[in-house]
Write a structure and sequence with these properties.
This protein is mainly beta. Helix content is 0%, strand content 32%. The strands form two sheets. It has a four-stranded antiparallel beta sheet with strand order 1-2-3-4, with no helix packed on it.
Length: 123
């Protein structure tokens, strides 16, 4: 995409997680088709950032996030998030008990068959 002053390209490494305080990140999920990332903390929490036009960040809205934001909706599940995977406009979260949570675009049923193909998001 085109570079703007609001979202400049960074030509070198920078500290992405400087704003997360003491959180220790154990896993980062992204994909070549994704324009968003998910980071999992050793404590079991999850953080999301990037494009969010289909709700793929799991934050309950469609606002783009330029940096990591905690996914509070996963905290009430009572389980630790142990893995995550991202697609073009959806995200899957694997909890330690084997439960899978999904959010984002429901094209081809990638977030579950009970949702239609419009941009619905649910965790």
């Amino acid at each position: 995409g085109m570079q703007t002053d609001e979202a400049p390209n960074l030509m070198g490494p920078h500290r992405l997680f400087a704003g997360l305080g003491a959180a220790k990140i154990s896993f980062i999920a992204s994909h070549c088709t994704s324009a968003h990332c998910i980071a999992l903390a050793q404590s079991g929490g999850a953080y999301a950032w990037g494009r969010n036009e289909s709700g793929q960040l799991g934050l309950g809205d469609t606002a783009t996030r330029p940096g990591p934001v905690p996914i509070d909706s996963l905290l009430g599940s009572g389980s630790t998030v142990v893995s995550a995977a991202t697609g073009k406009a959806h995200t899957l979260f694997l909890l330690e008990g084997g439960e899978v949570h999904a959010c984002g675009a429901s094209k081809q049923g990638c977030v579950g068959s009970k949702f239609n193909t419009r941009a619905e998001f649910e965790i």
